Amino acid sequence: MDPQFVKSLLAWYGVSARDLPWRGTDDPYAVWVSEIMLQQTRVEAVKEYYERFMEALPDIAALAACPEDELLKLWEGLGYYSRVRNMQKAARQIMDDYGGKMPSGAAELRKLAGIGEYTAGAIASIAFGQREPAIDGNVLRVSARVLGIREVVTKPAVKKQIREALLATDDGRVDWGRLNQAFMDLSSAVCLVVRPPLCEACPVAEYCVARREGLTDQIPDRGVKAGRRVEERTVLILLDGDRMAIRRRPAKGLLAGLYEFPAVTGWLDADGAVREAERLGFMALHVRPLPAARHIFTHLTWEMQAYEIKIAPRGEEYEKQLIFADPAAIEDRYPLPGALEAYASLYGIRIGRRKKEEET
Ligand code: SF4
C-alpha cells in the first residue's frame, strides 16, 4: 500500500470527519462503549443509546455495579445483548484485576470479555495512541479494494496480509487512532458496503486497484454465507384487564435474561392458541388474531404469528413464571427485545426509548 494513501486518507478525514458524540475523547471507557455499540448497529441508532448509557453509567465502576435489569433496559432495542453482558463481565474483571483502570495494550485488552482483535485495536489506538490497526469488515472491504485482493477477505491469511500492508505504510508518524477512524468514515460515506462505491468522490481513488481495474463490484469476495435458520413462532398476548403477561427468557442463549410475551415454537391456529392459554392456566374469553411479523437475527429469522387473548385466571393454577403488568410498567421496568416491537407497539410500549424523551 502506498504511504501516500495514508496521507490522503488522513487529509480527507481532517475536513470530513463525522461529528459523533464519542469523538474527541480519549477516555478509554467511552471509546470502548461506543465501539461495542457500533458492532452490527448503525451509527444513527447508536448515538441516542450511547448518550443515555454514558449518563446512566459514566465509568467502569458504575457499569460493574449496575443491576442486570437496569443494564438490559439501557440496551433494550439495540440487540445482540451478549455485548452488554460481556461489557459488564469485563468491567468487573477490570475492577478486580486492574484496579479499575482499563489496560492500555491490545494484548491485555483482548483478555477482557467481549473484546476481540478489532475492539482492542480501536481502544489501544484511539484512547492510548498505540500503533494498532483496528480491522473490521469495513476496513477489510476498503483495503481489499485498494490492494485489489480477489481472495475471500475473511480468510485469516488475507486479514494478516492487510494488517501487514497497513503497518508497512507507517513512517513512524502515523496517528493510528485517527487513521482507524478515517477508515471508519471512508467506509461508511464513500467506499460503501452496497455496490457500487462512490469512487468519484473518493480521496484515495488514485491508489485503488479495484477502481483502476474495474473490479469494485467483485471485491471484496466474502465467500459463501451460511443460510439463516427460520423459526416459526406463535406469540400470545394474554390480557387480564389492562395487564399483559410477560415472562423472563432463560439466563443463557438467545436474548438471555430479557422479557418477552409468552410464545411457542411453531404456528398455532386460533384454537391452538386457546389451548396454549389453557395450558398456561387461563380461560380464554376472547381471541383476536394479530398481524404476522418477522425479525431477522444474524443466524436466525423469527416468522411470528400472534393472537391477543383476553383471559380470566382459572384459580391459582396458572404458570408462575408469568408476570402481569400494565404496558406503562412494562415499558418502564422490563427490557424487551426489539424482535417484539411489532407487538409491543400495538399496546403503546416503546422499546428502547425512555419517557424522559417525551419531557424534553
Ligand atoms: Fe473504495 Fe472506490 Fe475509493 Fe477504491 S476508489 S477505495 S473502491 S471508493
Element layout with pairings:
Layout: H1 3-16, H2 28-38, H3 43-56, H4 60-65, H5 68-75, H6 82-97, H7 106-109, H8 117-128, H9 137-147, H10 156-168, H11 176-189, H12 209-212, E1 229-240, E2 243-248, E3 259-260, E4 263-265, H13 270-279, E5 282-296, E6 300-313, E7 323-325, H14 327-333, H15 341-344, H16 356-359
Parallel strand pairs: 1-6
Antiparallel strand pairs: 1-2, 1-4, 2-3, 2-7, 5-6
This protein binds iron/sulfur cluster (SF4).
Residues 142, 145-146, 190-191, 197-199, 202, 204-205, 208, 210-211, 216 line the site of iron/sulfur cluster.
Protein model, in words:
- It is a single chain.
- Mean pLDDT is 91; it is low at 354-360.
- The protein has helices spanning 3-16, 28-38, 43-56, 60-65, 68-75, 82-97, 106-109, 117-128, 137-147, 156-168, 176-189, 209-212, 270-279, 327-333, 341-344, 356-359, and strands at 229-240, 243-248, 259-260, 263-265, 282-296, 300-313, 323-325.
- Strand 1 and strand 2 (243-248) form a beta hairpin.
- Strands 1, 2, 3, 4, 5, 6 and 7 form a seven-stranded mixed β-sheet that branches.
- The longest helix is centred in the first third of the chain and has 16 residues, at 82-97.
- The chain has 360 residues and is α+β, with helices and mostly antiparallel strands.
- It is built from 16 helices and seven strands.
- The structure holds iron/sulfur cluster.
- Iron/sulfur cluster binds at residues 142, 145-146, 190-191, 197-199, 202, 204-205, 208, 210-211, 216.
